Amino acid sequence: MSNIVILGAQWGDEGKGKVIDIFSAKSDYVVRYQGGNNAGHTVVVGKDSFVLHLIPSGILHKGTICVIGNGVVIDPKALLEEIAMLEKRGVSVDGRLFVSEEAHVIFPYHRTLDELKEQKKKKIGTTKRGIGPCYADKVARSGIRIIDLLEADTLREKLQSNLDEKNAVLTKIYGVENFSFDGLYGEYLEYGKKIKKYVCNTKRLLNDAISKRKRVLFEGAQGTLLDVDYGTYPFVTSSNSTAGGASTGTGVGPTKIDKVVGVVKAYTTRVGEGPFPTEFGPDLMERIRQKGKEFGATTGRPRRCGWFDAVVVGHSIMVNGIDEIVVTKLDVLDDLDSIKICTGYRYNGKVYNDFPSSIKALTACEPIYEELPGWQSDTTKITSYEKLPRNAKNYLKRVQALLHTKIVLISVGSERSQTFSKGA
Ligand code: IMP
Q1: Does position 423 have pLDDT exceeding 80, yes or no?
Q2: Pick from 209, 233, 260: which residue ends a domain?
Q3: 120 in the same domain as 185
Q4: Is any ligand 1 atom within 6 A of the Cβ of residue 268?
Q5: How many domains does the chain have?
Q6: What is the pLDDT of residues 205-255, one digit of tens each?
Q7: C-alpha closest to that of 159 among 107, 103, 86
Q8: What is the whole-number distance in angstroms between the Cα of residue 126 and the centre of ligand 1?
Q9: Is 342 found in the same domain as 286?
Q10: Which pTM was predicted?
Q11: What is the dihedral of CA 166, 149, 160, 128, to 10 degrees?
Q12: What region, left, alpha or beta, does residue 179 occupy, with left being phi > 0 and alpha being psi -120 to 50 degrees?
């Protein structure tokens, strides 16, 4: 099995950064296929901690080639800052980082529109990075792509036409200041010059690599329940974070993908607005948030926390075709005397095991729980599945049985070494 998709099977923040870093050691290429700098993938290497927003987490492995695929939306300023941060910390990206010509570019008016929309009463709780407005332009066929930054006349024409429209919206609908063409044009031409050395036809690069039997890892960002089609719409991000996005966001056909690995936290979290059936009450919320350091890696916002939801993950397994599961942050549950798992939802007197499409139903449904005894001992120093306390093994076995999918790896801390396989 050589070409693997690794993605989040909940609402993001499942600990994908660490899992991708571990799998990267056995990959030749790591490619991001969707999202943008709304993501925050944390990788801990010894005493160093890296938070990556755009560049694939594989960059921390010297021999790995990293690709930002066409499905990603790129804020060039953020990209250049991330490159500078890595170089400053001794991680060289030259010759190892490739950016798709076809990826769409985030402009300041996208960020402003994102912020303005978030001021409404019915907000999504976005990261305000301009992600949604940029994808909206892409689908409306008015977006500006990385290749356009390298062609002065194309950029001039597209930016002028976009600004005419955006400035009218900004001034007439929102009553805020407009953007000057000259300022933006000069700034983005300059970004084009700086990133030119990384830009190429990444679909050719990846397909050639695959035909030479190189191993490609597809790095998902956000999570399945934030997918624009399969998530809790409209409380989602604006891309396909599910496995299908790995093909459309890179130009690698689905027949070339060998395996899909879903990353799940031993409990559930979400950031931003939207229904969350297994959300904890305030006391447990605070306890788990502190223990699990559940604060956004991108925005610093406190994450909402809740019990493990097998309906959510079952839905993810189906829409992604997940073959194997990695369970992260098991140690965060160490102190609890009992642990709940949601096995279904009750709504209008009926029991549902399928994730509802109706936000109204999801908001009103009552989770059905199974309660298991906790293990109340420290698992952070455990190095093999066999050495886990019996109740921790029982918890994992029950999760695996409910999901009908094999758990292959378990993580009990942020370090690379705090990971072990589940075995048979
Ligand atoms: P946007 O992607 O900034 O448009 O935000 C849309 C929704 O996705 C909001 O609920 C965000 O909190 C959530 N979101 C976006 N990126 C991430 C992520 O990397 N982890 C968790 N939630 C995210």
Answers
A1: no
A2: 260
A3: yes
A4: no
A5: 3
A6: 999 999 999 999 999 999 999 999 999 999 999 999 999 999 999 999 999
A7: 107
A8: 5
A9: yes
A10: 0.96
A11: 10
A12: beta
